[in-house]
Automatic annotation (TrEMBL):
<keyword id="KW-0547">Nucleotide-binding</keyword>
<feature type="region of interest" description="Disordered">
    <location>
        <begin position="1"/>
        <end position="24"/>
    </location>
</feature>
<protein>
    <submittedName>
        <fullName>Nucleotidyltransferase</fullName>
    </submittedName>
</protein>
<dbReference type="Pfam" id="PF26305">
    <property type="entry name" value="CD_NTase_C"/>
</dbReference>
<dbReference type="InterPro" id="IPR006116">
    <property type="entry name" value="NT_2-5OAS_ClassI-CCAase"/>
</dbReference>
<dbReference type="InterPro" id="IPR058909">
    <property type="entry name" value="CD_NTase_C"/>
</dbReference>
<keyword id="KW-0051">Antiviral defense</keyword>
<feature type="domain" description="cGAS/DncV-like nucleotidyltransferase C-terminal helical">
    <location>
        <begin position="183"/>
        <end position="300"/>
    </location>
</feature>
<keyword id="KW-0808">Transferase</keyword>
<keyword id="KW-0548">Nucleotidyltransferase</keyword>
<dbReference type="InterPro" id="IPR043519">
    <property type="entry name" value="NT_sf"/>
</dbReference>
Length: 303
């Protein structure tokens, strides 16, 4: 085994058993804090683990937990794609509580009650619970159900169900974590011989190295997951015998070639299959992806 193959094997590894125990403990503690808070009595709440934790793309020693705390009392919607005659009737939200910023404020109160000074509410999106010896850091995201309406191939009104979060600056962010999870499992288990998530972890680890070396600015962890997801399945091993070096070479080469100016990456979608990867409002660009691919190639000494 080459030195590079050995390194890639370490980089491809998921969280250790000890880290997984700490992740699960952090999730249980967040649930307990919310369920025990009297301010949420009578309010429908569901918990949705998401991000790298849920999708099993965490890398070792970088294993935070993301969990959405979702208000089930009502949903926000986007029916801009529908004809006026098909617009959704917005019924009065007679049973709602804690719309918008109010829900975040109540969730902050619940987290401060449970965690005291370990609770940091200064972030624009997530409420952060600090790591300690028994748990990893947890990002708790106050969320609502969201529906994006569209017409299917037969002209019938359908909708994508996702979540929406109000940032402290008033901006709303919409995500589709459950579609992301399902598509990721499909690609990993049946599309790539279980190499998709391994390649994602490798790219995340290399990105960490590049940031530490001052080669690039830090990029969101989710961005690496998106880029690897957009690589066609035939670039990955299917029999379990292909060296990791061959896979990462094919993956990085594809990302680099398709993120050139006028490359096909302009039409890529996030793993949820709903949001354009390089659409308006994203925190990254095709140039970021192109630079990351080039720096990764050079960092690993690929040929």
């Amino acid at each position: 085994m080459t030195a590079l193959e050995n390194k890639l094997g370490r980089y491809a590894a998921p969280s250790s058993d000890t880290e997984q125990e700490k992740q699960e403990r952090a999730e249980r503690m967040v649930r307990k804090a919310v369920e025990g808070w009297s301010g949420f009595d009578g309010v429908g709440i569901r918990f949705l683990p998401k991000g790298s934790y849920k999708n099993n793309t965490n890398v070792r020693a970088d294993s935070d937990v993301d969990i959405a705390v979702i208000h089930k009392g009502f949903h926000y919607l986007n029916d801009d794609a529908l004809r006026p005659s098909d617009k959704i009737v917005r019924h009065p939200l007679t049973s709602k509580r804690y719309e918008g910023a109010d829900f975040r404020a109540e969730l902050e109160a619940a987290m401060r009650n449970a965690y005291g000074s370990d609770c940091d509410t200064s972030g624009s999106t997530a409420i952060e619970i600090a790591e300690n010896g028994g748990r990893v850091k947890a990002d708790v995201v106050p969320s609502f159900e969201h529906r994006k309406y569209y017409y299917d191939a037969q002209g019938r009104v359908r909708y994508f169900e996702g979540t929406t979060t109000r940032r402290t600056n008033g901006e709303w962010v919409i995500n589709y974590p459950e579609q992301q999870y399902g598509n990721g499992v499909e690609k990993n288990e049946r599309g790539t011989g279980r190499r998709y998530k391994r390649m994602t972890r490798i790219l995340k680890r290399v990105e960490n190295d590049l940031v530490a070396a001052g080669k690039i600015e830090a990029l969101p962890s989710y961005f690496m997951e998106c880029l690897v997801y957009c690589v066609p399945n035939d670039r990955f091993n299917h029999g379990g015998l292909t060296p990791l070096t061959d896979d990462i070479t094919a993956v990085i080469a594809h990302i680099w070639s398709q993120t050139k100016p006028h490359g096909l990456a302009k039409d890529w979608y996030e793993p949820n299959g709903i949001k354009p990867l390089f659409g308006p409002g994203q925190k990254w660009s095709m140039d970021d992806a192109h630079t990351l691919a080039l720096e990764t190639w050079q960092n690993l000494g690929l040929k």
